[in-house]
Amino acid sequence: MSLGLVEKTASPTVTKLGGQIGAEIRGITLSPDLDEASVAFVYNAMLEHKVVFFRKQSLTSAQQEALGARFGTLVSHPTVSSAQGTKHIFELKARKGRAANTWHADMTFMASYPKASILRCIRPSPYGGATLWANTATAYRSLPQPLQDLADKLWAIHTNNEYDHTDLIAERDWEFIQWQANVFAARVFEAKHPVVRVHPETGEKTLLLGQFIKRLVGFNLPDSRALLGILQGHVTRPENTITWHWQAGDVAMWDNRATEHRAIADFGQEERELQRVTLVGDTPRSVDGQQSQQVVNGTPNPVLLLEQTGTWGPRAQD
Ligand SMILES: [Fe+2]
């Protein structure tokens, strides 16, 4: 069956771009009408290379949504509204150099966070604005055995409500800080995840870390930060990453269970526009089979409550 596909699609090729992560697929034009075998080809390449790239595509927002649905069930962001006229498109429209410029996997503040994301470049910045991905499976394998043994036992709380505002405060970007508080974290989600999860499809152990981590369970903040710094350092070693310089039309698709990513906010006051869809993921399992849990599920942000009601929580019944 797959032989028929390869003939039909003029032999798609997968070209490795980095030693540990990343490949470009050529010979496939992305469309919601891809045949089953092409969908499987792309998905399997993604599982193997963690992130795959396509140049010179011409998807519309609606086609990107329909294409995403070929690989799984689409899921919207829990707090940020989808782009106008779309059901599930998350808009990354930067002005003033804003970008998701900290290492993270998408939406890990949800217990069942997305298994994959598909990002499409509408308008690249005229310079800069690249995106980096890191392989969290090779990162785990690069740990010395005693550190693997420790990581296997660690759990962490991930939240959408503890963004590091240091840079934004330094730049006096009050508008974006307000957006973080009033939109991104208007409702608070926190999930408890194992630091090492077993990938449900490849069986690999991957490190589940990134920007949304608040702290390690059972550790004080200084110890938590020190340990996370050591582990995260293995994820983001340059040799463990791939950098993609966007052109209009490019599409990247990554395994959100086996990668972290970040943008580089080095495009000054220029504009940069991308759109993303995410696919429903399973609930992670630790090395010993325990599942992640949603520990806070969309409660109103206490700081907003304080502003609106003058109390930190629901008013006491008196
Ligand atoms: Fe992201």
Automatic annotation (TrEMBL):
Gene Ontology CC terms, in alphabetical order: cytoplasm
Annotated ranges, domain TauD/TfdA-like: 14-278
Listed EC numbers: 1.14.11.17
Gene Ontology MF annotations: metal ion binding; taurine dioxygenase activity
EC supergroup of this enzyme: oxidoreductase
InterPro entries per record: AtsK-like, TauD-like_sf, TauD/TfdA-like
Cofactors required: Fe(2+)
Top-rank taxon, per record: Bacteria
Keywords: Dioxygenase, Iron, Metal-binding, Oxidoreductase
Signal peptide start-end: none
PANTHER family, A to Z: ALPHA-KETOGLUTARATE-DEPENDENT SULFATE ESTER DIOXYGENASE, ALPHA-KETOGLUTARATE-DEPENDENT SULFONATE DIOXYGENASE
Protein family according to the UniProt entry: Belongs to the TfdA dioxygenase family.
Protein name in UniProt: Alpha-ketoglutarate-dependent taurine dioxygenase
The species this protein was found in: Acetobacter ghanensis
Lineage: Bacteria, Pseudomonadati, Pseudomonadota, Alphaproteobacteria, Acetobacterales
Gene: tauD
